[in-house]
Amino acid sequence: MSKFKRTLITTALPYANGPIHIGHLAGVYVPADIYARYLRLKKEDVIMIGGSDEHGVPITIKAKNEGVTPQDIVDRYHEIIKESFQKLGISFDVYSRTSSEIHHETASEFFRKLYETGKLIEKTSEQYFDEENKQFLADRYIIGTCPKCGFEKAYGDQCESCGTSLSPTELINPTSTLSGNQPVLKETKHWYLPLDQYEPWLREWILEGHKEWKPNVYGQVKSWIDGGLQPRAVTRDLDWGVPVPVEGTEGKVLYVWFDAPIGYISATKELTPEWETYWKDPETRMLHFIGKDNIVFHCIIFPAMLKAEGTYNVPENVPANEFLNLENDKISTSRNWAVWLHEYLEEFPGKEDVLKYVLTANAPETKDNDFTWKDFQARNNNELVAVLGNFVNRALVLTQKYYEGVVPAAGELSDFDKETLASISTIKADVEKSLDNFRIREALKNAMDLARLGNKYLADEEPWKVIKTDPERVKTILNVCLQVTANLTICLEPFLPFSMDKLRGFLNLEKMDWERLGDAALLPVGHKVNTPELLFEKIEDSVIETQLQKLENTKKANEMATAKAAPAKENIEFDDFAKMDVRAGTVIECEKVAKTKKLLKLTIDTGIDKRTVVSGIAEYYQPEDLIGKQVSILVNLAPKSLKGIESQGMILCAENADGTLSIVSPDKKVKNGSEIR
RNA sequence: GGCGAGGUAGCUCAGCUGGUUAGAGCGCAUGAUUCAUAAUCAUGAGGUCGGCGGUUCAAGCCCGCCUCUCGCUACCA
């Protein structure tokens, strides 16, 4: 760390529309916490920053649905999140929030600086406006008929029925959900950050200058830069967020992605008047701990913002993790498929470290990983209990039994004694090397090797036998065991802080700096240790079964929810229906459309003519299987060009709950061109 | 389809700039042991390193094609 005098650790700001789950923890907070604790133990100057991200449209929607204010929503989740972090022992130096006054000021200032120094560009575009409420409408506040599937309650950004992503102007009969009126298109002015101008700098800074970044991060960044960067809007028409600090911009706020990372700066300000040292001194090393979904923001957009501002440092490294799955399925807040931290803390009191341990031992550092309750149980029982807890217990119980808890003096050390004690320093170096390279999982494994070392030493020396023949020698053996135990309290402190605190209690020992690790005389001769309790307890099958049952119930509830058919659309007149001309037709040719995943190009004999239709069914049908098959085709749908092919009609399909498509065919062969009605 | 990341023992993962018999933890088998929450320690079995081809004296590591998983993106008349 020659170049740097201090470290600023930021952790992705959790979005305050739901609680924290194990995926967040494994990806961001647990590794960041371990790293921060390690640096603190080394007496380095380090601060760890966190906070809730409280702006953005999803929060306003949730508020509206519940009939409360956005502030109510974020107050609720901010408290839950903050409290659960605190209980798990995530050691933020400050945990702030973006709805705070200090953040509004900081974000405003930041924007003003960019605005005044000409780093932003202005653009005017047309967006939907609700005249009754006198405001521009976020995409989600507009519903209308989906132009693709005809679903009448499609949102402005996506149709819930067919899954298509939309823009509000594509909706037929758009309606404002605020007033129920038809919104009008109105010009609106916004500011953009011209990311494209930063491309050469980004190339040099990251692609040339940071080849040491993790492959997943580096590759992702390269992909974005090579793909060409576009100017990105930094403001939005919305009333929830940081108001744009420019005259005549009522009803505009900073876009949430712009204000959220500035939250790191605000939080630092809240923590210390020295905040500028942490952000602007070139001798400060900034690290962003994030999940892979955030790579583009932290490696491209936020650095470009900082660069544009001109006085800030950019990150030295961005150790992004991949995703954690749960029991072979993606973690999902909306599907409630998660292990929620606040629930875990209630259901597993005193087992904070166990969760951290399991999430670290199986951290998704290089690829997506899977959390299973069975693995959770196995790691607890076979590693924490059997290896670590057991060794500590053996050393302490023997000390009580033979010496009433008083640390015996070591006599002359055998070669094996010396070797064992010397190994502590080797382990220290291994742990350091792993942590310095953000290989947290490997670091934990290395640290646990110290406990393994202890078990091996005991098994080889067999003090319970030697006590009968050479009681003097046993003093040395137990002194060594106790010194190893004492060293554990340092070595595992970053990973298992609560447990090491407990262990220090057994040993009657103060917390010690990292530098003491390797010292063979941490416990002075004659020191009195306490009667030990169990450091970890076994987790029984029934506890695991309860958790699995809980997940099983969630799964059932989800199935019930998705099995529920969409409600019927509004009634229509027969004449409306009669406008649709659906015919039976036979597929005569069929091939995949090049460079697409979903599209098939079909030639259909409709009885009227032979025509080309492009259909998004390639994921469910092989072209050769369709030839000769009779299908239903809507023949009077306006033609549309898709991937350069004119599609003249639409093949009717039934969509299953899981999204798979089935072509609707006549029950018996009929003459091509037969009307379907 | 494009781009990125991954596919190494039953499971979770290491394998540095290519170099002798491919490693760890857990699980499994056998043995030792009883101080300890039947915990521990030792030994062993188990791998065509996703598939095919190529470069090389030599490839898990380099190149090409294919395949599967995850993410971003295009796309669903």
Automatic annotation (TrEMBL):
<feature type="short sequence motif" description="'KMSKS' region">
    <location>
        <begin position="330"/>
        <end position="334"/>
    </location>
</feature>
<dbReference type="InterPro" id="IPR015413">
    <property type="entry name" value="Methionyl/Leucyl_tRNA_Synth"/>
</dbReference>
<dbReference type="InterPro" id="IPR014758">
    <property type="entry name" value="Met-tRNA_synth"/>
</dbReference>
<keyword id="KW-0862">Zinc</keyword>
<keyword id="KW-0067">ATP-binding</keyword>
<dbReference type="InterPro" id="IPR001412">
    <property type="entry name" value="aa-tRNA-synth_I_CS"/>
</dbReference>
<protein>
    <recommendedName>
        <fullName>Methionine--tRNA ligase</fullName>
        <ecNumber>6.1.1.10</ecNumber>
    </recommendedName>
</protein>
<keyword id="KW-0436">Ligase</keyword>
<keyword id="KW-0694">RNA-binding</keyword>
<keyword id="KW-0479">Metal-binding</keyword>
<comment type="similarity">
    <text>Belongs to the class-I aminoacyl-tRNA synthetase family. MetG type 1 subfamily.</text>
</comment>
<dbReference type="InterPro" id="IPR014729">
    <property type="entry name" value="Rossmann-like_a/b/a_fold"/>
</dbReference>
<dbReference type="InterPro" id="IPR004495">
    <property type="entry name" value="Met-tRNA-synth_bsu_C"/>
</dbReference>
<dbReference type="GO" id="GO:0006431">
    <property type="term" value="P:methionyl-tRNA aminoacylation"/>
</dbReference>
<comment type="subunit">
    <text>Homodimer.</text>
</comment>
<dbReference type="InterPro" id="IPR012340">
    <property type="entry name" value="NA-bd_OB-fold"/>
</dbReference>
<feature type="binding site">
    <location>
        <position position="333"/>
    </location>
    <ligand>
        <name>ATP</name>
    </ligand>
</feature>
<dbReference type="GO" id="GO:0004825">
    <property type="term" value="F:methionine-tRNA ligase activity"/>
</dbReference>
<dbReference type="GO" id="GO:0046872">
    <property type="term" value="F:metal ion binding"/>
</dbReference>
<dbReference type="InterPro" id="IPR029038">
    <property type="entry name" value="MetRS_Zn"/>
</dbReference>
<comment type="function">
    <text>Is required not only for elongation of protein synthesis but also for the initiation of all mRNA translation through initiator tRNA(fMet) aminoacylation.</text>
</comment>
<feature type="domain" description="TRNA-binding">
    <location>
        <begin position="576"/>
        <end position="677"/>
    </location>
</feature>
<feature type="binding site">
    <location>
        <position position="149"/>
    </location>
    <ligand>
        <name>Zn(2+)</name>
    </ligand>
</feature>
<keyword id="KW-0820">tRNA-binding</keyword>
<keyword id="KW-0547">Nucleotide-binding</keyword>
<dbReference type="Pfam" id="PF09334">
    <property type="entry name" value="tRNA-synt_1g"/>
</dbReference>
<dbReference type="InterPro" id="IPR033911">
    <property type="entry name" value="MetRS_core"/>
</dbReference>
<feature type="binding site">
    <location>
        <position position="162"/>
    </location>
    <ligand>
        <name>Zn(2+)</name>
    </ligand>
</feature>
<feature type="binding site">
    <location>
        <position position="159"/>
    </location>
    <ligand>
        <name>Zn(2+)</name>
    </ligand>
</feature>
<dbReference type="Pfam" id="PF19303">
    <property type="entry name" value="Anticodon_3"/>
</dbReference>
<dbReference type="Pfam" id="PF01588">
    <property type="entry name" value="tRNA_bind"/>
</dbReference>
<feature type="binding site">
    <location>
        <position position="146"/>
    </location>
    <ligand>
        <name>Zn(2+)</name>
    </ligand>
</feature>
<dbReference type="InterPro" id="IPR002547">
    <property type="entry name" value="tRNA-bd_dom"/>
</dbReference>
<keyword id="KW-0648">Protein biosynthesis</keyword>
<dbReference type="InterPro" id="IPR009080">
    <property type="entry name" value="tRNAsynth_Ia_anticodon-bd"/>
</dbReference>
<keyword id="KW-0963">Cytoplasm</keyword>
<dbReference type="InterPro" id="IPR023458">
    <property type="entry name" value="Met-tRNA_ligase_1"/>
</dbReference>
<feature type="short sequence motif" description="'HIGH' region">
    <location>
        <begin position="14"/>
        <end position="24"/>
    </location>
</feature>
<keyword id="KW-0030">Aminoacyl-tRNA synthetase</keyword>
<dbReference type="InterPro" id="IPR041872">
    <property type="entry name" value="Anticodon_Met"/>
</dbReference>
<dbReference type="GO" id="GO:0005524">
    <property type="term" value="F:ATP binding"/>
</dbReference>
<dbReference type="GO" id="GO:0000049">
    <property type="term" value="F:tRNA binding"/>
</dbReference>
